[in-house]
Amino acid sequence: MPKKKKTEFDAIVVGAGPAGATIAIMLAKKGMSVGLIDRESFPRRKACTGWVNTDIAKLLDELDVASKQLLSRPIKEVAFHNADLSKTSVPKLKSTPGYLIDRATFDERLVNTAKRAGAQLIENCEITDLDPQESGVNVITSKGKTYQCKLLVLAIGASKKLRAQVGIARSDARETRWTALIEHELDAKSKDAPTTTYIDIVLGATADNGLGMLARQKDRISLTLNSPGERDAIIARIVELAHIMREKKMVTSDFPAKPTAVECAESSFGPALELDSHVGKHTLLIGDAGGFIAAVSQEGIYPSMWSAKIAAEVIGSAWGADISQDALMTFDNKWRLEMGDYLRPPNTDLQLLAPLIFSNQPMTDRMASAFFFGENI
Ligand SMILES: Cc1cc2nc3c(=O)[nH]c(=O)nc-3n(C[C@H](O)[C@H](O)[C@H](O)COP(=O)(O)OP(=O)(O)OC[C@H]3O[C@@H](n4cnc5c(N)ncnc54)[C@H](O)[C@@H]3O)c2cc1C
Q1: Angle 139-145-151 (CA atoms, 0-180°, nearest 5)?
Q2: CATH of domain 8-50+102-173+268-343
Q3: Vertex 63, ends 62 and 69: CA angle to 5°?
Q4: Domain spans, the chain
Q5: Best exposed site among 34, 37, 134, 298 by fewest CB in 10 Å?
Q6: Which pLDDT score is estimated for 269?
Q7: How far is the CA of 109 from the centre of ligand 1 (A)?
């Protein structure tokens, strides 16, 4: 007889992206019963450039995720460009600034590790309602099924839903930030294919200080544009950037002229540092859902996993007796202490700094350190 699936858990994690899978692994390893729920099934496609910083290797080791194959493409060359790509500066890199990963494989590997650690993965299951109770939260699916947990972790990415139902709300509306992506697969054997792994960063790529990133590797080129503003204007601008890059032969002549994906780039909540609390009724908010995105680089994969690790530590130290709301509230201080500097925007306006980056080598190097290693400029 097939084993009956559980519907009651110590912890339920909604969202099995890097944040959700990370915390599911860590909580399951602590012996808690964990339900990991996602509306999609894995492997799932996720629009992403796939840049991760080098610190992720240590985190993957802690999670018992074999990293050698996932991190097999170190970034070899980096360049900064101005908005019309007429100026370029190349930083002197102290060390490898990161890796390019295949996002579908990366996320699937984390989810599989969570399963091995004992978490129950519930796929193709959209959560539409949350009903906080005295001693936990009822989590309700689009098909009307209810799962129960003592503790809920929301790791739902940029999705706007659900947070208000556990008392995490923001009064002021924020302008949406978008990421447009053009992805192009290449024949690695073609003579036009890049011979190494490059990252080109376009600073001030939109009037709203948007960020363009071109990632070139032997079998794939992808261009992203991340900016606040109007969706259509961002699409028009990425098309223009792709055109300039084709003319400059930075991309192949058949590089597409239309985005393959345009998505909300961050939680509508905005940056984590602007949110009063990431703690709701028996609930923690992590990853993109909580705005854990680095301000300079718009990097989200590593910060989302880092926020998950801190949340798991908070839950671990409070677990045993009933988890009190006071114990959960320590998450707010803990992540600010550990991650605040990494996420914070630079003290100086990047638009004012831009001319210096193209005329002064030490400034170029400092920009690279801020971008890839989270240092202040
Ligand atoms: C085009 C683009 C390019 C990017 N490039 C990079 C990059 O190069 N490097 C980088 O570091 N970051 C990049 N990012 C950001 C990065 O993708 C995110 O920061 C990262 O995915 C955050 O992980 P997460 O686990 O918080 O959320 P996600 O990975 O978004 O996972 C959330 C999960 O929740 C599920 N979910 C949502 N709502 C529900 C629901 N109601 N019920 C059930 N399941 C639900 C979703 O299906 C999803 O699987 C990019 C983003 C975009 C859009």
Answers
A1: 20
A2: 3.50.50.60
A3: 100
A4: 8-50+102-173+268-343, 77-99+175-266+346-373
A5: 134
A6: 62
A7: 15
Residue 233: how many other CB atoms lie within 10 Å:
14
Q: How far apart are CA 116 and CA 337, in angstroms?
A: 32
User: How is residue 267 annotated by DSSP?
Assistant: -
DSSP conformational letter for 66:
-
Mean pLDDT along residues 40-59? 94
Instruction: Give the Å distances, CA to CA, from 153 to 150, 166, 326.
Output: 10, 11, 16
Distances from the Cα of 280 to the Cα of 72, 127, 265, angstroms: 39, 17, 23
Is it the case that residue 128 has pLDDT exceeding 90? yes
- Judge if the beta carbon of residue 35 lies within 6 A of ligand 1: no
Q: Under 8 Å CB-to-CB from 121, ≥6 apart: which residues? A: 16, 36, 38, 42, 111, 114, 115
CA of 328 to the centre of ligand 1 (A): 24
234 and 227 in contact (C-beta within 8 Å)? yes
Ligand 1 mean position to 53 CA, how many Å?
16
Q: Are 52 and 59 in contact (CB under 8 A)?
A: no
Q: Whose CA is nearest to atom 44 of ligand 1?
A: 38
Q: For atom 37 of ligand 1, which residue has the closest CA?
A: 156
Q: Which atom of ligand 1 is nearest to the CA of 126?
A: 42
pLDDT(1) > 70: no
Q: Atom 50 (ligand 1): residue with closest C-alpha?
A: 48
Give the ligand 1 atom nearest the CA of 51: 8
Instruction: Specify the DSSP class assigned to residue 68.
Output: T
CB of 39 closer than 6 A to ligand 1? yes
Asked whether the domain spanning 77-99+175-266+346-373 has the same topology as the one spanning 8-50+102-173+268-343, the reply is no
Residue 155 is predicted with a pLDDT of 97
Instruction: Give nearest CA residue, ligand 1 atom 26.
Output: 287
3-state class of 316 per DSSP? helix
Cα–Cα distance between 244 and 372 in angstroms, integer?
A: 25
- Which of the listed ranges 168-177, 274-283, 340-349 does the model predict with the highest average pLDDT? 274-283
User: Architecture of 77-99+175-266+346-373 per CATH?
Assistant: 2-Layer Sandwich (3.30)
Is residue 61 helix, strand or coil? Answer: helix
